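Handoff note, outgoing to incoming analyst
You'll be picking up this chain. Sequence as last confirmed:
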Amino acid sequence: MKLPWDKKYICWGITAFATVAASIVFFMILKEWETVGDVFALIAKSLRPITYGLIMAYILNPLMNAVERGFVLPVMKKIFKKGTRRFKGSVRVISIIITWAVTTLLVLALVDLVVPEISNSIETLVQSFPGYASKALSWGEELLKKNPMILNYLEESISGFSTNLSDLAARLKEIIPNINTLILGVSSGVYGMVSAVLNLLIGIIVSVYILKDKEKFVAQIKRLFYSTMPTKKANNVIAVCRLTHDKFGNFITGKIFDSIIIGILCFIILTMFNMPYGALVSVIVGVTNVIPFFGPFIGAIPSALLILLVDPIKCITFVVIIIVLQQFDGNILGPKILGSTTGVSSFWVLFSILVGSGLFGIWGMICAVPLFAVIYTLVKDGCHASLQKKGVDYSCETFENIDHIDEKTNSPVWLDK
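Most recent structure output, in case you need it:
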């Protein structure tokens, strides 16, 4: 229907006003970016318990599904009539209770097994530290005797350090009256620790609610998409969400399981070779193995330094063990557990980890690979759909031998011609 001129002018005016208003809002956001960032940080801090709950629910969801379908549902079918509301509610509640009970028992068992070993390793490290220090000093003396230039450099550095002692004393005099600030800092640290524990407890409660009504939440999100978007666009958004869930779910749960196995194997092997700090090193290796590609190096370097302080020969043996263990993980265990969940090459794995770590630190390193796998799959599917429309749907291997595509016939012109 064609609008009258007066209504058309009104629509133009509203559009122009909305454009100018949006431009002003965008300019103000850029101008007050620090304030906007503080507001977003405050919102993120307030939603931290929800974030914890979402993460815990997402990680525990596969275990709960296995418990529900493999144990609780067959048992409850014999007690209640299938399909009633009481039946569904009872199955879900019992499944959540069993899931959290198993998780708690596993965590307590891990703590009971690992913490004493770690505490013993740390106690041994503290007791042996004077011997390590004297050994390091003897190595340093031999190094300085053989390299007088390093000795001269150290003497100059020490002399410069001694001249700054008076400045350090003067600064201490300024710091001592401000001891109240230090006390406030310590108290804020204690408050932060208590707040973190409280957020964790609230997150556990949130995870229970999310696991209980997960189908309802998914239905509400679908309803929101279909009510605010055209059907085709809503279908595409839901397909992207499913793809993201598949990539992240399979990768994260598989990587956690893989890291647990690697940590246990590392502990067994180090115990067989009578390595020092076996439990502590195994925990470090297992935890850092969650990080793709760089994880083994991040965990092996500090662990090797610890063993080096005790026995250099065992340090070399440890490095060989870690190399063999990581080769086993990368070529045999990892592909068996993870399969082809990412579907990207080693180069893109390295690329995504570097970008993710630069933008978001340690969390970016962990989540970079599945996130890039989603982007890679979407781009690949988009290219495939576009080529199909043009009638030049060839594989990447075929394009390696194509010089160009003929503009009139859309036929490939090969390199050898």
